[in-house]
Amino acid sequence: MKAAVLVFPGSNCDRDLAVAFRQAGFQVDMVWHKDTSLPDGVDIVGVPGGFSFGDYLRCGAIAARSPIVAALTSHVEKGGFAIGICNGFQVLLETGLLPGALMRNAGLKFICKPITLQVATSNSDFTQGYNSGTTVTYPVAHHDGNYQATDDIRKALSGEDRIAFRYSDPLNGSVDDIAGILSENRRVLGLMPHPERAADAALGLTDGVAMFRSLAGAVVDA
Amino acid sequence: MKARVHIMLKTGVLDPQGEAVRHALGSLGFEGVDAVRQGKVIELDLAEADPAKAQAEVTAMCDALLANTVIESYAVELL
């Protein structure tokens, strides 16, 4: 059971993500952005939060063109799992592995606080540890989390039950209060809130533990 | 030769920063600003001397990196 966590210049949640994976039983390798391949046998790739490349050009834009992301894309195309959290979500959108875009928060402020989310579907290996409709508390810390997509994409996301999380209250201007979405094969999750920062009692929040445990269960079953 | 790329949010995409600038102009007493859209300008120094080739090259750069065509449109100007 192996996880790889990508590390870019400016990543700052990479080690939190590694700890969350390890606590769920994964063996974790940190993988530098200039590497061109993932370690053998990786089940899931984590794209962490932070400010990769200083958010230059657009959040996640430079990271999305780095050498390791070609390996990530091929891992995903072969049906591998991937999770992108916060800046990692921005990277997944910039690569086109998930649809839509994240724009500046509607209120223009950086938002850093624990918030409540609704688990919009339990039909994924990321969210099957929760009941659909359950409310969880994860922290958010972002300036560009305002999810936007065309009407066609919104219809597809909602029709195919691919909205994973919604903000319980409007937060940053995201359409349909979308906080996280799944890929068509439901094996790639991108979300702005941080489950890995809600995965240890010492941090005060533990609602994220269920996500990493359910991923571990899915990988064992696979 | 030099190229200048103008990148703007597509029509219909909400621009919260432009909206904030519009409010600020109003509060400074500048009346009659109906809308503000904020974009970016990128200047490139190119080795290519042929305008048609330069245009094609910069267009490819825009699609690959400089613009996010999900939300942004771009225009290439050769100088």
Distinctive features:
heterodimer; A: 222 residues; alpha/beta; 5 helices; 11 strands; B: 79 residues; alpha+beta; Mth169, Chain: A; three-stranded antiparallel beta sheet
What do these coordinates show?
The complex is a heterodimer of chains A (222) and B (79). Chain A is α/β, with parallel strands linked by helices. Chain A has a single domain (2-221), classed as 3-Layer(aba) Sandwich (Rossmann fold). Helices cover 23% and strands 26% of the residues of chain A. Chain A has helices spanning 14-23, 67-77, 87-95, 151-159, 209-221; strands spanning 2-7, 27-32, 44-47, 81-85, 101-103, 111-119, 135-142, 146-148, 163-167, 178-182, 188-191. In chain A, helix 1 links the parallel strand 1 and strand 2. The N and C termini of chain A lie close together (10 Å). The model of chain A has no long low-confidence stretch (mean pLDDT 97). Chain B is an alpha+beta fold. Chain B has one domain (2-78): Phosphoribosylformylglycinamidine synthase subunit PurS (Mth169, Chain: A, 2-Layer Sandwich). Chain B has two helices and three strands. Chain B has helices at 16-27, 51-66; strands spanning 2-9, 40-45, 72-78. Chain B is elongated, with a radius of gyration of 16 Å. In chain B, 13% of the residues are buried. Chains A and B meet through loops of A and helix 1 and helix 2 of B.
**Head-to-tail CA distance between termini of chain B:** 7 Å
Q: Average pLDDT value of chain B? A: 95
CATH architecture of chain A: 3-Layer(aba) Sandwich
Low-pLDDT parts of chain A are none
Number of helices of chain B: 2
| C-alpha geometry of chain B | elongated
Instruction: Name the helix and strand elements of chain A from N-terminus to C-terminus, one letter apiece.
Output: EHEEHEHEEEEHEEEH
Q: Name the CATH superfamily classification of chain B.
A: Phosphoribosylformylglycinamidine synthase subunit PurS
Radius of gyration of chain B, in angstroms, nearest whole number? 16 Å
Q: Which quaternary structure do these chains form?
A: heterodimer
Overall number of structural domains of chain B: 1
Task: Sketch the major β-sheet of chain B.
Answer: 3 strands, antiparallel
Number of DSSP-assigned strands of chain B = 3
| CATH class identity of chain A | Alpha Beta
Note the gap between the termini of chain A: 10 Å
CATH homologous superfamily annotation of chain A: Class I glutamine amidotransferase (GATase) domain
Approximate shape of chain A: globular
> On the 0-100 scale, what is the average pLDDT of chain A?
97
Percent helix of chain A, as a range, is 10-25%
